[in-house]
């Protein structure tokens, strides 16, 4: 793909799952890839696999080190790192703060660092791994749902504000993906997400198809488009359907702590 061949690409949360699949996909298409993950060993393992460079650490502060590793500009930034604390308003402050910091503010900080160069050059590409939770919701996790809505809104704002200045933005919104995050969701994940879960490589393939078409909204599960339209057109009917799912979750056996 000529769009990414030779490009300097950063993927956060790339020690496994969707992030690792994105790193592999960009590398296979000729990009120079920086692999970022909070887990240094996992970041180094993926970097070695794809012929990239590992820059472990906090996703919020990776841009300067990534520029050094690439020996120049960052052309594509994949804001992929994410956390999914469970619970609702009763979830502790640390869980809410982590969801907001990793799922939203890391994207904001990256854009703040990248935009001056991108606007000066008239080109740049920002990829946000949002989740269908950012378009719909996710039963069992208010911090995840709320922060992913915000991540989607930020990606949307970036596109609306800067597309005429050469900044391309993509929001990836899958349902279940077979990753550690799905496994950690336990019985709720098995009920809600596992039946239609796809592999991380399928998410990456959907992104590259979207890049080729210059599409903002990337839906690895095409049925999400109908869910999203139904939510907007008939919100009460949609909420009633989600509430039925919530009731099924409440009937699940209590998971051991």
Helix content: 40-55%
Strand % is 5-15%
CATH superfamily: NAD(P)-binding Rossmann-like Domain
- Counting DSSP H or I runs of 4 or more residues, the number of helices is 10
Q: Helix/strand-derived class?
A: alpha/beta
The shape, in one word, is globular
The major pleated sheet works out as:
7 strands, parallel
Q: Averaging pLDDT over every residue, what do you get?
A: 93
Give the strand line-up of the largest sheet. 3-2-1-4-5-6-7
N-end to C-end Cα span: 47 Å
Order of helices and strands: EHEHEHEHEHEHHHEHH
Provide a short characterization of the protein structure.
This protein has 257 residues and is of the alpha/beta class.
Any chance you could write out the topology, listing elements then pairs?
Layout lengths: L7 E4 L5 H12 L3 E4 L4 H11 L2 E2 L8 H8 L5 E4 L13 H29 L2 E6 L12 H21 L4 E6 L7 H5 L1 H7 L7 H14 L3 E2 L5 H10 L1 H16 L7
Parallel strand pairs: 1-2, 1-4, 2-3, 4-5, 5-6, 6-7
Helix pairs in contact: 1-2, 1-8, 4-5, 9-10
3D architecture notes:
- The protein is of the alpha/beta class and 257 residues long.
- The protein has one domain: NAD(P)-binding Rossmann-like Domain (Rossmann fold), CATH 3.40.50.720.
- Helices cover 52% and strands 11% of the residues.
- Strands 3-2-1-4-5-6-7 form a seven-stranded parallel sheet, with helices on both faces.
- Helix 1 crosses helix 8, helix 4 runs parallel beside helix 5 and helix 9 packs across helix 10.
- The longest helix has 29 residues.
């Amino acid at each position: 793909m000529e769009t990414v061949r030779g490009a300097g690409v950063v993927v956060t949360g790339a020690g496994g799952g969707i992030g690792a699949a994105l790193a592999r996909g960009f590398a296979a298409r000729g990009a120079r890839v920086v692999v970022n993950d909070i887990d240094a060993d996992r970041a180094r393992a993926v970097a070695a696999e794809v012929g990239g460079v590992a820059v472990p650490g906090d996703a919020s502060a990776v841009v300067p080190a990534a520029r050094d590793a690439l020996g120049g500009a960052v052309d594509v930034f994949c804001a992929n790192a994410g956390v999914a604390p469970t619970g609702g308003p009763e979830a502790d402050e640390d869980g809410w703060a982590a969801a907001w910091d990793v799922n939203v503010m890391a994207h904001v900080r990256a854009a703040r660092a990248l935009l001056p160069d991108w606007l000066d050059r008239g080109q740049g590409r920002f990829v946000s791994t949002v989740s269908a939770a950012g378009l719909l919701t996710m039963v069992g996790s208010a911090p995840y749902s709320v922060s992913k809505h915000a991540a989607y809104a930020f990606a949307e704002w970036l596109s609306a504000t800067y597309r005429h200045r050469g900044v391309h933005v993509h929001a990836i919104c899958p349902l279940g993906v077979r990753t550690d995050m799905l496994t950690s969701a336990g019985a709720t994940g098995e009920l809600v997400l596992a039946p239609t879960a796809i592999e991380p490589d399928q998410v990456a393939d959907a992104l590259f198809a979207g890049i080729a078409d210059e599409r903002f909204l990337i839906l690895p599960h095409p049925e999400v488009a109908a869910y999203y339209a139904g939510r907007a057109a008939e919100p009460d009917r949609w909420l009633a359907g989600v509430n039925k799912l919530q009731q099924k979750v409440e009937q699940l056996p209590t998971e051991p702590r």
